[in-house]
Structure formats: C-alpha cells, structure tokens
Design brief:
The chain has about 280 residues and is an alpha/beta fold. Helices cover about 45% and strands about 10% of the residues. The strands form three sheets. It has a five-stranded parallel β-sheet with strand order 1-4-7-10-13. The longest helix has about 30 residues. The two termini are about 45 Å apart. InterPro entries: LbH_SAT (IPR045304), Ser_AcTrfase_N_sf (IPR042122), Serine_acetyltransferase (IPR053376), Trimer_LpxA-like_sf (IPR011004). This is Serine acetyltransferase. One of its GO terms (biological process) is amino acid biosynthetic process.
Length: about 280
C-alpha cells in the first residue's frame, strides 16, 4: 500500500517548521562516548599530542551539534569555548565521584574498574556534562545527552538537577532525579530511588517541584521522596521503600517496618493452595 502524498507533505512541513534543529543522535552519542574515553580510558596512542588531537575533534563535533540549534556560528563558538573552559572543573568533580565509589563500595577494587564497569559513574559523567550545557542554556542537546545515559544505564537524571561533590550511585537501575532536585555533597543513592514531584501539572513547569537532599545523606533502594518543599536534613539515613513527602530533620533515621513470616511450607493454608 502506497503512503499518501498528504501524509508525506504533513510530515515534511512538521519537520521544516520545527523551531529547533534536529540533532544527529548517532553523532551525539559518539561525542559523549569519545569524550568519556578521552577523559578516563586508555587508548592506543596515549601521548599528549594525541590527546590534543582528540580534544580538537571533540570541539569540532560539539560545534556542529550546537550550531544545529543556534544557526549562528558566533554564538556556537562562544558556547563551545565556555564548555571546554569548564571541562577541567568537571573533570575534577568526576574524579571525586569515582573516588567516592571506590571508597564506599566494597566491590570496587580500583579507579580503573570504576571507569570501565560502573554504570552509576557513567550516568554521573553524563549528568555533569549535560548539566554544564543546560546551565549555558543550550537547547535540547542536554536532554538528548541525558537520555543516552538513561537508555544505557536505566538511570534518569535530568540535566537541570543540581548535584554536589562526591556523588555516589550504587547499582543505579531505576533511579529518577527530577529537574529541580538539589543534592548536596557526599550523598549516596541506591537503585530504585525516586526524587520526584508531588504535582506534574504543566502550570508548575517553572516552579520548584523536586526535593532537596542535604550533605552526607544516604538513600537506600526503593525510597521515594517527593515535593519541591521537601528537605532531607544532613547526615540522615533514608531506609529502603519509604515514601516521604515532608521534611526530615538532620541526623534522622527513616525506615519502613514490614512484617515477614517464615513457616513450614509442608502444610499451606487452604487459601494458598492452587492447581495449574
């Protein structure tokens, strides 16, 4: 069955009238991967000259991506310069993140292992570079970059979130961190944690919707913390599977108590018997 000319025309007009350019997602993913490898992984030629050539290529690719949106070479050049001027600070932050994983995860034996094998660190890396572009008000590209990490790791960190130093993600699958979340220093988060909004109406798009997590907080797996006015006080421990929508004072222990029964399975209650 032939596709109608009317549908083709509608699709063409929608793409043509887009207020932002469409990124080459394959090129975007490759740029993220190449930057990561240049910063952290050994390569065939580890000379300083090769590193300089790598960074020149990375600058050129980022320029192409940003120019897709701006359509202005002068603005693009300023944006690229600003990102790479911030890169030394981003690198230092990421090294602290990796060291935090090495210090607190008993399964981690070296920084090299963290760089090679830890999805939580990769997701943090993607967050930090996408957040830098977000802070520069580069349109769309930070979201495309952050969704790349989401698809690879199952960790969803909005580039608009604010995250302090020595951030630790263990395992990580299912973590969601919303746009207006503010996280302090030395925070540790485990798999399945949601830092989300109480209300997702469009009218609240420019309001503080997500919680504040102060310094040295630990949040264990499955915890859900919601609301822009919710603050978890410093040095608190949030246990697994809790649901929090109100402030937690500093130095608190919050936990969910459930009842588990263990008994002999040789004589199950009638209500539990079944036939397949």
């Amino acid at each position: 069955m032939a596709i109608s000319d009317q549908l083709i025309e509608r699709i063409h007009q929608t793409k043509h009238n887009s207020i932002h350019g469409f990124f080459d997602k394959i090129k975007t993913k490759k740029w993220v991967k190449d930057l990561y490898e240049t910063l952290f992984l050994p390569q065939d030629d580890n000379t300083e000259d090769q590193l300089k050539r790598n960074f020149e290529a990375l600058q050129e690719t980022l320029s192409d991506l940003i120019n897709t949106v701006t359509g202005d070479k002068i603005i693009t050049e300023k944006q690229v310069d600003r990102f790479f001027e911030a890169l030394p600070q981003l690198y230092d932050q990421l090294v602290l993140d990796a060291k935090s994983i090495l210090e607190f995860d008993p399964a981690a034996d070296s920084l090299e292992e963290v760089y090679l094998a830890y999805p939580g660190f990769f997701a943090t890396y993607v967050y930090r570079i996408s957040h830098q572009l977000w802070s520069q008000e580069v349109k769309i590209l930070p979201r495309v970059i952050s969704e790349y990490a989401h698809s690879k790791t199952g960790i969803d960190i909005h580039p608009g979130a604010t995250i302090g130093k020595s951030f630790f993600i263990d395992h990580g699958t299912g973590i969601v961190i919303g746009e207006t979340t503010v996280i302090g220093n030395n925070v540790k988060i485990y798999q399945g944690v949601t830092l989300g909004a109480l209300n997702v109406s469009k009218e609240k798009a420019h309001q503080k919707r997500h919680p504040n997590i102060e310094d040295d907080v630990i949040i264990y797996s499955g915890a859900t913390i919601l609301g822009g006015e919710t603050t978890i006080g410093r040095e608190s421990i949030i246990g697994g599977n809790v649901w929090i929508t109100q402030d937690v004072p500093a130095n608190s222990l919050v936990y969910h108590k459930s009842e588990i029964k263990i008994k002999d399975n040789s004589s199950l209650p009638e209500s539990l018997t079944f036939v397949i």
